[in-house]
Amino acid sequence: STAKRCKDKHLEEAFLLSRVLSEGLRALGEAEARPLLRCILAFQMEATSSSSSFQKLEQIVTQLAVGKEALLAQEVGALLAGLVKQGEVLSPGDLQSVCMFMEESSLGRQHWRQNLVPLLQGLATTLRWVLQSQPAPGGMWGYLAVKACLQLFQALPKDVAPLVWSTEGKSEALQSLLGL
Questions:
Q1: Residues 104-148: tens digit of each pLDDT
Q2: Half-sphere exposure of 47 (CA within 13 A, CB side)
Q3: DSSP per residue over 8-65, as a string?
Q4: What pTM value is reported for the model?
């Protein structure tokens, strides 16, 4: 509890500092800004278990990327693309990251919207594995897999619905998920 309060306090100070230094940060070129954005995004990946920390880091990275939105979108895309690999089961940490970026990050939702099919395939593979394997389906892995599916349906309903109802746009991965 004390560590969390301390972390939140320091994140708030970092956010306020990023606002004060915003003019100087905007003057950074893409080559100078990229490592800074990557560093903050790495912190954000580590903070997926704390909504308040994740949100503060989201505010900081958004503040730092003013005028460099395309660069930030590219970095978020590269980061999230590494979570879902073809045919592989998502780890609990990866599922937590998918959930947090779906729930709290507009760029995260945009990335998943553009990469919906690989995400559906990864979630279907993971949920199938969880239901058929050693970890108890009622455990954390199962909880996170179901949470990621539900958040996907809630956050991107207009993208998912056509894959359910249209005959030409049907997704085998989505049908598998719904069946599971």
A1: 999 999 999 999 989 999 999 999 998 887 656 558 888 999 999
A2: 21
A3: HHHHHHHHHHHHHTHHHHHTS-HHHHHHHHHHHHHHHHHTTT-HHHHHHHHHHHHHHT
A4: 0.84
